[in-house]
Structures are given as structure tokens and as C-alpha cells.
């Protein structure tokens, strides 16, 4: 099993390859599709659009939350196509980490001109 740092490095490398091939300007859904394909080519196990329930007073509630990608059951990847990663995007990822009880997450903004400028790693 890869350490979190090794896994996130592989996830970032896959994002760089997708961005290199496609560039900015497509819809988020297109990047997600291509990114997940790239992760499959790299033998990284993923779950797409993984539902995330909210536990409230002992009851699991389906509030419609979905994590874009969960890699190797350990890292949440949120895919964005926005002008800039904002605090609300970070809050969303931190909430997903808290609710899923996972520790590490990535925000990947494919709208950035340079991929490295559009990646944020968060630890809960």
C-alpha cells in the first residue's frame, strides 16, 4: 500500500498528464472522465461520485453529497473548473474529509493555466 505522499504524487502526476493533453476550457465532467481513465491506466483503484451520508444524532441522512473521486479508499479528489480555488472549495473538501473520516484530499482545478497552480492538498 502506498503512503499518502506517494499516492498524492501519483494523483497529481495523472492530473498533470490530463491537463497537458486537454488544456483548460472544458467542462468539469470531461476532466473527471479523462482523469478517471488516466488513473485506471496507472492502476490506481478509484470510486467515482461516491455518495457521502451525514450522520446526525445517530441517523445517517442522505443529503446529496458526492465525492468526485476517492483513490485507494484513502484520498478524496475534488475536481474543479473555476477561475481560482476559493476558501469555499477548501471548506467543501475539509467537510468531505471529516464526514468520510479520511485524512487527505486534493482539489484539482483544471481551469488553471498551469496545473501546478491549480492543485491544493489538504489534511484533516
Describe the structure.
It is a single chain. This protein is an alpha+beta fold and 124 residues long. It has a single domain (4-123), classed as Trna Endonuclease, Chain: A, domain 1, CATH 3.40.1350. It is built from three helices and five strands. A five-stranded mixed β-sheet has the order 1-2-3-4-5, sandwiched between helices. A hairpin with a 3-residue loop joins strand 2 (59-71) and strand 3. Helix 1 crosses helix 2 (28-41). The two termini are 20 Å apart. 27% of the residues are buried.
Number of helices: 3
Output the radius of gyration. 14 Å
DSSP helix fraction = 25-40%
Low-pLDDT stretches = none
What composes the largest sheet?
Answer: 5 strands, mixed
Mean pLDDT: 94
CATH class: Alpha Beta
Amino acid at each position: 500500500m502506498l503512503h499518502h505522499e506517494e499516492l498524492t504524487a501519483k494523483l497529481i502526476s495523472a492530473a498533470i498528464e490530463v491537463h497537458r493533453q486537454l488544456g483548460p476550457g472544458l467542462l468539469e465532467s470531461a476532466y473527471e472522465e479523462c482523469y478517471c481513465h488516466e488513473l485506471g491506466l496507472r492502476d490506481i483503484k478509484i470510486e467515482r461520485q461516491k455518495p457521502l451520508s451525514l450522520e446526525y444524532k445517530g441517523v445517517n441522512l442522505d443529503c446529496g453529497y458526492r465525492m468526485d473521486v476517492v483513490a485507494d479508499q484513502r484520498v478524496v479528489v475534488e475536481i474543479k473548473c473555476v477561475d481560482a480555488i476559493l476558501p469555499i472549495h477548501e471548506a467543501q473538501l475539509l467537510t468531505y474529509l471529516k464526514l468520510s473520516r479520511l485524512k487527505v484530499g486534493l482539489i484539482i482545478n483544471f481551469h488553471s493555466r498551469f496545473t501546478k497552480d491549480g492543485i491544493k492538498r489538504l489534511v484533516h
